[in-house]
Specification:
- This protein is mainly α.
- The chain has 18 helices and 5 strands.
- The longest helix is centred in the middle third of the chain and has 30 residues.
- About 19% of the residues have low confidence.
């Protein structure tokens, strides 16, 4: 919206439109006093008093909006932009609107006049008589016409384009007091000025803050994940972020190659004894530390003098004991366990 449309005087007088129904209610209470004796004469008096003064003012000396009840802004305190608005108030469109505004008010008056008796029990003006009520109705109709004429003129000025308004010359300062109706004591300042809202700043391009972004990341905007750094790309970063490392590569490195294993005695690092601790694969965390694990024999039979010897009937109860007795004991070597693990 243009800056001149923020002028507080325009909106203060436009808000006066809300008082029109109140003035019509006051006129209805005045018409409710007594019984009408000369209906046509009463209507003529109300219309003449209520319409003609305001209409003449708007046609000859329009109401100066830079005033409030009791105070008026000096012409010398009006800037060029405000005096351009005064030039627009003197235009033919505003004058044509002043001729048309009384028509709907007269129509409303003709509708309310025969219904005024319904408010007879509500009116507080019974003591003034019938003509006192007519005078109140005429005054109320005058104020309703005034508070409708001025807002309509303000609406016509607000509808003016900024380009057209800029082309109008400012109204002469010396002619303001003679060509406009100023009601109130002249002062240098009444209402505070309202500044126009600043235009929103244009958002900066992502490439201005991050020149290293590629086009796909620029299109993704703020929702795209941040770029990685060298620290996060290190091999140990997976452990720091809580991601468990892969164990199969390190686990396989704990077993000796098949070519280095002696079938009869095993390897120096993996002897051929049949204990679990010597044959089990240690986890990566324990591989770098000296961890002592208690040896547990695979066969806990007290009658067996060779813990490292495995009997078939122990592993497979369904085998015939006689066949087991004839069979020779089988010794478990690291090669056989290693081959079993690889096959498994």
């Amino acid at each position: 919206m243009a800056a001149w449309r923020y002028d507080p005087y325009l909106w203060v007088h436009l808000a006066g439109l809300a008082t029109v129904p109140l003035w019509l209610d006051l006129g209805l209470l005045g018409l409710a006093v007594g019984n009408p004796t000369f209906p046509a004469l009463e209507l003529a008096v109300i219309i003449a008093i209520g319409v003609l003064p305001v209409l003449a003012m708007q046609l000859v000396r329009p109401f100066c909006i830079y005033s409030v009840p009791g105070l008026a802004l000096r012409p010398t305190a009006m800037g060029d932009e405000r005096r351009r608005l005064l030039t627009q108030f003197r235009g033919w469109r505003v004058r044509l609107g002043a001729l048309l505004v009384p028509l709907p008010l007269v129509w409303v008056l003709l509708k309310l006049y025969p219904l005024a008796f319904l408010a007879r029990d509500l009116t507080p003006f019974d003591g003034g008589g019938r003509w006192g009520g007519v005078a109140i109705a005429a005054f109320a109709f005058l104020m309703a016409n005034l508070f409708l004429q001025v807002p309509v003129a303000v609406l016509q000025v607000l509808a003016t384009s900024t380009r057209r308004l800029s082309a109008l010359p400012p109204y002469p300062v010396a002619a303001v007091a003679t060509d406009f109706t100023l009601v109130g004591w002249p002062v240098g300042h009444i209402l505070p000025d309202i500044a126009a809202a600043p235009a929103p700043a244009h958002p900066r391009s992502p490439s201005a803050d991050h020149p290293d972004l590629i086009p796909s990341q620029m299109e993704a905007g703020a929702d795209s994940p941040p770029l990685g750094n060298a620290e996060n790309d290190l091999p140990g970063a997976a452990v720091d972020r809580g991601v468990p490392p892969l164990e199969h590569e390190e686990s396989s490195s704990l077993l000796p190659p098949a070519s280095e294993v002696d079938p009869d005695h095993g390897s120096p690092d993996h002897p051929s004894t049949g204990t679990v601790s010597q044959l089990a694969i240690q986890p990566p965390q324990a591989a770098d530390k000296d961890v002592q694990v208690e040896d547990q024999p695979l066969n806990h039979d007290p009658e067996n003098s060779h813990p490292e010897t495995l009997h078939p009937e122990t592993l497979h109860p369904e085998i015939d004991p006689a066949a087991v007795a004839e069979a020779e004991p089988v010794e478990v070597s690291a090669v056989s366990v290693n081959s079993y693990i690889n096959v498994g």
